[in-house]
Design goal:
Layout lengths: L4 E3 L15 E2 L14 E5 L2 E6 L7 E2 L4 E5 L8 E9 L8 E2 L6 E3 L2 E9 L4 E4 L4 E2 L9 E10 L2 E13 L7 E2 L3 E4 L5 E3 L2 E3 L10 E7 L3 E3 L6 E3 L6 E6 L8 E4 L3 E5 L6 E9 L10 E2 L7 E4 L9 E7 L3 E6 L3 E4 L3 E13 L10 E5 L4 E5 L2 E3 L2 E3 L13 E4 L14 E10 L7 E7 L10 E9 L3 H7 L1 H27 L1
Parallel strand pairs: 4-14, 15-28, 16-28, 30-39
Antiparallel strand pairs: 1-11, 2-3, 3-6, 5-12, 6-11, 7-10, 7-13, 8-12, 9-10, 13-14, 17-24, 18-23, 19-22, 19-25, 20-24, 21-22, 21-26, 23-27, 25-28, 29-31, 31-37, 32-36, 32-38, 33-37, 34-35, 38-39
Length: 490
C-alpha cells in the first residue's frame, strides 16, 4: 500500500497541470479551549480531471483528499480516522481505474488514515481517473467524501469534477536569449495553438513562471501577479480560441534578471481553458489589458513554452597545475584542478563545468582517488578511451563533493607514475564552463621533471639483471661452501 502524503501546511495546488484554488470544506466550528478534536477537509471545490480531446486515453491519479486536525488545547490526536469517498457521481464523465491506496467497493473507496496528530494533516489520492470518449468540455460530476474518527465530529465535503478542454499547445523551446545584462528588461511574446476540434467556450488563461532571480513586470490589468517582484503571473483572455487556430499575445511579457551575479535563467508559460486563479496571485497589473492576436496555424505539440536566458555575467575558470616531479619508477601525487574567479556563481540547476587533463609523455595516471559519503572511489574523473587522451573531470559529480569550493579552488590529487625520462615533456590541463568568456586563461601545462631511477631500483626493476644477480649469489655460496669443506678435510 502506498504511504499517505504528510501535510504540514496548506498546499497551493494539487497538481502542476491543474491551477485550482484550494478551499476548506464546511466543517464544525474551530476547536476552542475545551480541547475537543475537530477535523477539516482541505480539498478543492472544483477539479479538472482531464481535457475533452484526450478522451479514453486520459488518466489522472493526482486528486487528493487532505484531512487536517485543528490545533487544540487538549493536544489530542484524532483516533482511527477513516475517509469514505463516493465517486458514483462520475458515471458518464470518468472511469475508475485500479488504485490500491484505499479499499474499493464499486465506486466507493474507504481510506484508513489511522491516528492523526493534533495540528497535523495527511492526504490520500484515492481515485485513479480514466477518460471517456465523446465527452464535451464542461461535462462534470460530483465526488462526495466523509471523514469519521472515534473522538471527533463527522465532517463531509464535495468536489465538482469537470472535463476540461481543449488542450492548448505551446511551441516548446523558444529561441534563447544570450548576453542579457542583469537589471535590463527583456520581452517575451507568448504563443498558443488550439489543435483540437473544440473551441474554448470560456476563453483562455495564461500561466507564466520564471526561475529564481527572474522577475516579471506587473503591466497588464487582466493579469494577476504573485507579489510585486513576481516570479509568476496568471492572465485571462475572453478570446474564444477557435478549433485549429493559433494566437500570440498582442504585447510582450516583460521580465528582468535581477541579481547582479546571476548567470542564467528561464521563463516558462502554459495555456489552459478554463482555469482558476491561484490563491497567491493577488497583485493586479495597472496597465492596459493584454490581448490575443490571431496568427497563421501552428503545429505546436508541447504543453509549455520555454525561454532560456544567459546573462552577461561570467564564471571565469583558470587551471590549477603543478609539476610531475620525482624519480623514474616513483608514483607521485600531483594536485590538479581549477580556480573559480567569478564573478558569477553557478547554481544547482546550472552546468558546473569541468577540467580536462592530458598527462605528460612518459607518465601514467594510476588513480584519481576520492571520498563520497564515507565511501572511497578510485577514479574521480572519466578515463580516456584511447592512450594519450584526456581525463575529463566534471566538478559537479560526486567525486568532487568534498573538494569543490565555489569562489575558490577545486582540485584533486592525481596519482601519477613516472615511467621514463622524456626531456621537455609537458602535459596540459584545460578548463571548460558554459559561462566562461575569458578563454585566454583556460589552458596551462603540466611539466615533467624526472630524475633517473636509483641504482637499486634499476637492479630490481630489470628481471634479467635480478635473475643474473640471484644466480651469482647462488654460485658464490656454493663456492664458499666447497672451500670450507676442503679446508675442514685438510
Amino acid at each position: 500500500m502506498s504511504l499517505p502524503i504528510r501535510i504540514l501546511r496548506r498546499p497551493a495546488a494539487l497538481a502542476a497541470s491543474v491551477a485550482a484554488l484550494f478551499a476548506t470544506a464546511v466543517a464544525p466550528a474551530a476547536a476552542d479551549d475545551s480541547g475537543q478534536v475537530v477535523m477539516r477537509f482541505e480539498t478543492v471545490p472544483t477539479y479538472v480531471m482531464y481535457n475533452a480531446d484526450e478522451g479514453a486515453g486520459a488518466s489522472n491519479d493526482d486528486f487528493a483528499v487532505p484531512v487536517h486536525v485543528e490545533r487544540s488545547k487538549g493536544d489530542e490526536a484524532a483516533r482511527n480516522l477513516r475517509v469514505v469517498v463516493d465517486a458514483s457521481g462520475l458515471a458518464g464523465v470518468a472511469r475508475l481505474g485500479e488504485n490500491r491506496m484505499c479499499t474499493a467497493e464499486g465506486p466507493v473507496y474507504t481510506c484508513e488514515y489511522g491516528n492523526l496528530q493534533n495540528g497535523d494533516g495527511e492526504s490520500y489520492t484515492p481515485l485513479s481517473l480514466l477518460g471517456v470518449d465523446g465527452v464535451e468540455p464542461g461535462d462534470s460530476g460530483t465526488v462526495t467524501y466523509t471523514a469519521t474518527a472515534d473522538n471527533a465530529p463527522t465532517i463531509t465535503g464535495t468536489t465538482r469534477m469537470t472535463v476540461g478542454g481543449p488542450t492548448l499547445s505551446a511551441p516548446g523551446q523558444e529561441k534563447g536569449v544570450s548576453g542579457l545584462a542583469p537589471g535590463k528588461p527583456a520581452n517575451l511574446t507568448a504563443r498558443l495553438a488550439n489543435n483540437t476540434r473544440f473551441p474554448t467556450k470560456q476563453g483562455v488563461a495564461l500561466q507564466v513562471d520564471t526561475s529564481e532571480g527572474v522577475t516579471l513586470t506587473a503591466l497588464h490589468s487582466n493579469c494577476f501577479y504573485a507579489g510585486h517582484a513576481a516570479t509568476s503571473a496568471w492572465c485571462t483572455f475572453p478570446t474564444k480560441a477557435a478549433a485549429g487556430a493559433a494566437y500570440r499575445t498582442g504585447a510582450p511579457l516583460v521580465y528582468t534578471v535581477t541579481p547582479p551575479g546571476r548567470l542564467s535563467g528561464e521563463v516558462t508559460y502554459t495555456w489552459s481553458s478554463p482555469s482558476s486563479r491561484p490563491a497567491d496571485h493577488t497583485v493586479r497589473g495597472t496597465g492596459s489589458p493584454l490581448t490575443l492576436v490571431r496568427t497563421a496555424g501552428q503545429d505546436f505539440d508541447d504543453s509549455h513554452g520555454r525561454l532560456g536566458i544567459t546573462t552577461t555575467v561570467q564564471a571565469d575558470y583558470r587551471p590549477v597545475t603543478a609539476t610531475v616531479r620525482g624519480r623514474v619508477g616513483d608514483t607521485v601525487k600531483v594536485r590538479l584542478g581549477l580556480e573559480d574567479l567569478g564573478p558569477g556563481r553557478t547554481r544547482g540547476d546550472e552546468e558546473t563545468g569541468r577540467f580536462e587533463v592530458v598527462p605528460p609523455e612518459g607518465t601514467t595516471v594510476t588513480s584519481i582517488p576520492y571520498t563520497f559519503e564515507g565511501d572511497v572511489g578510485k577514479w574521480a574523473c572519466a578515463r580516456p578511451e584511447r592512450p594519450g587522451g584526456a581525463f575529463v573531470c566534471e566538478i559537479g559529480h560526486d567525486g568532487f563533493y568534498e573538494v569543490r569550493h565555489e569562489g575558490g579552488t577545486t582540485a584533486i590529487d592525481f596519482h601519477i607514475r613516472i615511467d621514463r625520462q622524456v626531456p621537455g615533456a609537458k602535459g596540459t590541463i584545460r578548463t571548460h564552463s558554459p559561462f566562461d568568456r575569458t578563454p585566454a586563461n583556460d589552458l596551462a601545462v603540466i611539466p615533467l621533471d624526472a630524475s633517473p631511477a636509483p641504482p637499486y631500483r634499476r637492479f630490481l626493476g630489470n628481471p634479467w639483471t635480478w635473475t643474473a644477480g640471484a644466480l651469482a649469489v647462488v654460485v658464490l655460496a656454493v663456492v664458499h661452501r666447497r672451500r670450507r669443506r676442503n679446508a675442514t678435510t685438510s
